[in-house]
């Protein structure tokens, strides 16, 4: 006889109600995620310029702040996933995160409209002669970044899993194909929203100023929140399960207690526990996912993504070297000390190849990694899957900030001009890109090493 708690767990993952879930919920979820991406990603490309012009910060300082902001946005996904899967459920966490992002973007927008929230502008771009932001001004700026980071940390790990809740039905024989299609379309919309953010929103900021350029993302975030909440009556809202750490601890204890058991395939059914929502996987001596219905395997997709990103960074280094050479040849550009240098006689189409490769790299790597993790963990940890993915991005943000500061200190030692000088014509961003490409190659070699423990095996 099942306990009351066990019956409730079964109800949570029972076949879908005909009146809730399904494709009719996708417009609300996709609109919420798409507008959130357009709003948040639209703030990032020009933010370093806003910090340099609006807050009189050096390029290295501004870049470090933005790297830490990015790291927090991704790192807080662990908190969002834990709160979602263990306490509040995905619907509430996505709603809280969306509202938090809206609040943070509104505060950031206010910094462009209320002059006392920023230091006085510089007549000339000489950092030592410019007014630094006061502690109060700096606090408001960082507070807005922090609130936006909390919102992103709550929305991003839970939104994709919340959408999967609406479609996932183990009784449907086409369920695996539906879920693969969902992941692909989900990331396709993210790619389109990123394209809009880095083109249209950035153009608006350049053409119409910060007030309009930051105001539009805040308004889009308002629409994002409204769309998500409007779909509330149609959603399947899976209840939170017990604390994730409880399950981890149980697995650890069981593994230690049963480490000496001679396991045979005939009686392995009683050896380990699985939740009702998890599929039973065949045991093996190493990691291995068999036939691939989706074409390329998740591991192969990740590998392709790493190769493409390395190529993109190499092309970025070559393009920057060409741009710098052209800029130095224009004698009226090189002597200037500030970022407001004249236009370089070079087409922006030079940057298309590297951005195309970066986009493809992100598509291959992100989708492959999420599918890999989603297939390995139970449905009750769906939010945690994306949190694990974003954890890597958080670590990269902190590591990137460390690289920028160390590289600036080392390359400017003895009065030399830093590779990351505020005047990019005097610096050497091309060397910086080559360094990142080298790190990416090392990462790919590490990936190949790990793949040795994940090779498919034939039937025994």
UniProtKB/TrEMBL annotation:
Keywords, ordered alphabetically: Membrane, Transmembrane, Transmembrane helix
Keyword Transmembrane helix on entry: yes
InterPro entries noted in UniProt: MFS_trans_sf, POT_fam
Keyword set includes Transmembrane helix: yes
Domain of life (superkingdom): Eukaryota
Location(s) in or outside the cell: Membrane
Stored Pfam families: PTR2
Membrane spanning residue stretches: 59-79, 91-111, 138-164, 185-204, 210-230, 298-318, 355-374, 381-404, 431-451
GO molecular function: transmembrane transporter activity
A GO cellular component annotation in the UniProt record: membrane
Membrane topology designation: Multi-pass membrane protein
Family assignment from sequence similarity: Belongs to the major facilitator superfamily. Phosphate:H(+) symporter (TC 2.A.1.9) family.
UniProt-listed PANTHER family: OLIGOPEPTIDE TRANSPORTER-RELATED
Protein's name in the database: Protein NRT1/ PTR FAMILY 1.2-like isoform X2
Gene from which this protein is expressed: LOC104235173
């Amino acid at each position: 006889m099942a306990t009351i708690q066990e019956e409730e767990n079964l109800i949570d993952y029972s076949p879908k109600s005909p009146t809730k879930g399904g494709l009719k919920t996708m417009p609300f979820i996709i609109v919420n995620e798409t507008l959130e991406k357009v709003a948040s990603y639209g703030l990032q490309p020009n933010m370093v310029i806003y910090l340099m012009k609006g807050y009189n910060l050096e390029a290295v300082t501004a870049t470090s702040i933005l790297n830490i902001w990015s790291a927090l946005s991704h790192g807080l996904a662990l908190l969002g996933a834990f709160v979602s899967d263990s306490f509040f459920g995905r619907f509430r966490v996505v709603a809280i995160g969306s509202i938090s992002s809206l609040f943070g973007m509104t505060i950031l927008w206010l910094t462009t409209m209320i002059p006392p929230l920023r230091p006085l502008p510089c007549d000339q771009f000489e950092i030592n002669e410019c007014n630094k932001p006061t502690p109060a001004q700096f606090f408001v700026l960082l507070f807005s970044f922090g609130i936006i980071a909390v919102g992103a940390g709550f929305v991003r790990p839970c939104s994709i899993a919340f959408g999967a809740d609406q479609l996932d039905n183990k009784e449907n024989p086409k369920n695996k194909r539906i879920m693969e299609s969902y992941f692909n379309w989900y990331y396709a919309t993210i790619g389109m929203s990123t394209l809009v953010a880095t083109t249209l929103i950035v153009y608006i900021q350049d053409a119409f100023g910060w007030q309009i350029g930051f105001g539009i993302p805040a308004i889009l975030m308002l629409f994002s929140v409204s769309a998500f909440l409007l779909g509330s009556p149609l959603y399947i809202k899976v209840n939170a399960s017990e604390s994730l750490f409880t399950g981890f601890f149980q697995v650890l204890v069981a593994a230690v207690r049963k480490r000496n058991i001679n396991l045979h395939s005939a009686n392995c059914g009683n050896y380990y526990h699985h939740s009702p929502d998890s599929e039973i996987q065949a045991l093996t001596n190493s990691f291995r996912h068999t036939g691939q219905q989706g074409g390329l395997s998740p591991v192969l997709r990740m590998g392709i993504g790493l190769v493409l990103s390395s190529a993109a960074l190499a092309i970025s280094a070559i393009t920057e070297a060409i741009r710098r050479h052209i800029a130095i040849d224009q004698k009226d550009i090189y002597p200037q000390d500030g970022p407001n240098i004249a236009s370089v006689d070079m087409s922006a189409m030079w940057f298309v190849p590297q951005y195309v490769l970066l986009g493809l790299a992100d598509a291959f790597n992100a989708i492959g990694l999420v599918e890999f993790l989603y297939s390995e963990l139970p449905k009750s940890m769906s939010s945690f899957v994306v949190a694990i993915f974003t954890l890597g991005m958080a670590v990269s943000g902190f590591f990137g900030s460390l690289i920028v500061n160390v590289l600036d200190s080392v390359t400017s030692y003895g009065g030399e001009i830093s590779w990351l000088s505020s005047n990019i014509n005097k610096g050497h961003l091309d060397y910086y890109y080559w360094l990142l490409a080298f790190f990416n190659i090392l990462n790919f070699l590490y990936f190949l090493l790990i793949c040795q423990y994940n090779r498919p095996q034939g039937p025994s």
